[in-house]
Amino acid sequence: MNNYAQDVKKRIYDAGFEVEFEPDTHDTMNKQVRNAQLQQFNFILVTGEKEKINGTVNVRTRDNAVRGKVQVDKLIAKFRLFRDEYTRDTENVTFDS
């Protein structure tokens, strides 16, 4: 699973966005999500087997609002839109469009 997460990280980073990934953690997924929320990351991307098969990530906000599964390319496009249009309240934007 780490290979897919590394690939997602690289694609987002290569698109010009900051991204962190800790491949060698022994924390549970819930603990990792909680730590990311406490560190105030705007978006937390969760990957698993289903996401790998579908080429998606599961998007959550730091307020633990689940935005659902999004194709990685669409996510990068949405991040570009946020940046280019200076979207202030990105946590309340939908990702399905």
TrEMBL record:
It comes from the Eukaryota. Gene3D superfamilies: Anticodon-binding domain (3.40.50.800). Residues 2-79 form the Anticodon-binding domain. Transmembrane segments: none annotated. Pfam families: HGTP_anticodon. GO terms for molecular function: threonine-tRNA ligase activity. Keywords: Protein biosynthesis. GO terms for cellular component: mitochondrion. GO terms for biological process: threonyl-tRNA aminoacylation. This is Anticodon-binding domain-containing protein. It comes from Panagrolaimus davidi.
